[in-house]
Design goal:
Strand content: 25-35%
Structural class: alpha+beta
Shape: extended
Distance between the termini: 41 Å
């Protein structure tokens, strides 16, 4: 079974570079994305536009409440990402390493939950019933 991983970077991790170095990093990163596509692991990737409008949304009495501007501090914002569908953590590490080297800054890797891992009301109720039964056995 394949697993989906998010490879991403925080804007604070981006290292300084000359215009020429930025252009080379962009070429290198695009080459890695093409290599991912050829290998059949590429889902999607992108970089966030720090100059574009940002908004925040949260629930309020059953309706969305929108606020202009970022919610997170700038240091907490990730700058770009790639999502990959790979057979295991070792393969995710391989691709993350290639991205880190191409960009010349650190990357973080997180696995997506599988649908079976997403909590549901029925699963929550079953877990609670199981916890209560286990507690009753201990008494």
């Amino acid at each position: 079974m394949l697993a989906e991983y998010l490879i991403f970077f925080n804007d604070d991790w981006v290292t300084d570079a000359s215009d020429e170095d930025w252009q080379q990093r962009a070429r290198d990163a695009r080459a890695v994305m093409e290599e991912m596509k050829t290998a059949g692991v590429y889902i999607f990737s992108g970089g966030l536009d720090n100059d574009a409008p940002v908004f925040h949304v949260e629930p309020g009495d059953g309706k969305p409440v929108f606020t202009d501007g970022p919610y997170a501090e700038t240091k907490e914002v990730f700058g770009g990402f790639a999502a990959v569908d790979v057979p295991d953590e070792a393969t995710a590490r391989y691709w993350a390493g290639k991205v880190a080297v191409a960009c010349d800054w650190p990357q973080e890797v997180r696995i997506f939950r599988t649908p079976a891992q997403v909590p549901t009301p029925d699963a929550d109720a079953a877990a609670a019933t199981g916890a209560e039964a286990a507690a009753a056995k201990e008494v």
